[in-house]
Amino acid sequence: MAARLDDLDRKILRELQRDAGQSLDAMARIVGSSKTPVWNRIRKMREAGIIGPNTVIVDPDALGLEACFFVLIRTSEHEAEWQSKFLETLRNRPEVQEAHRLAGEIDYILKVRVANARAYDEFYQAMISEVRVFNVTALLSMEEIKSETALPV
């Protein structure tokens, strides 16, 4: 169920998504309010689960994680035990930035960030040694054209 947000809430969310590290004074000035109402709204949105933990966006290239693979997985296994093991395997692999269960011919898609093709192969070998899959297709991203963390509020 979508949360009820007014214009001020949306302005605050846009600013937090743009720069969560800015001061309350600066944010209040930008959204056209004062510090206390902005703080109260942020607190209420946190309590409602609209705002999660503060994190930092790190440049993967600066850390030598220059290869981004999209991994398409098909499985012939759909039992709860297999799925539980598969999800545990994904959660334990820090290379997996995103994992989605899909409708259609492909069962899962993963976004995997590693240093290079050799590192991807190590990830792949480790994954298939832990859980059985029917088919894996890895697609190397040649260029990241757009990557946003901000939602359109």
From TrEMBL:
InterPro entries: ArsR-like_HTH, AsnC-type_HTH_dom, Dimeric_a/b-barrel, Tscrpt_reg_AsnC-like, Tscrpt_reg_AsnC/Lrp_C, Tscrpt_reg_HTH_AsnC-type_CS, WH-like_DNA-bd_sf, WH_DNA-bd_sf. One of its GO terms (biological process) is response to amino acid. The keyword Ribosomal protein does not apply. GO terms for molecular function: sequence-specific DNA binding. It comes from the Bacteria. The keyword Transcription regulation applies. GO terms for cellular component: cytosol. This is Lrp_2 protein. Keywords: DNA-binding, Transcription, Transcription regulation. Residues 5-66 form the HTH asnC-type domain. SMART domains: HTH_ASNC. SUPFAM superfamilies: Dimeric alpha+beta barrel (SSF54909), Winged helix' DNA-binding domain (SSF46785). It comes from Jannaschia aquimarina.
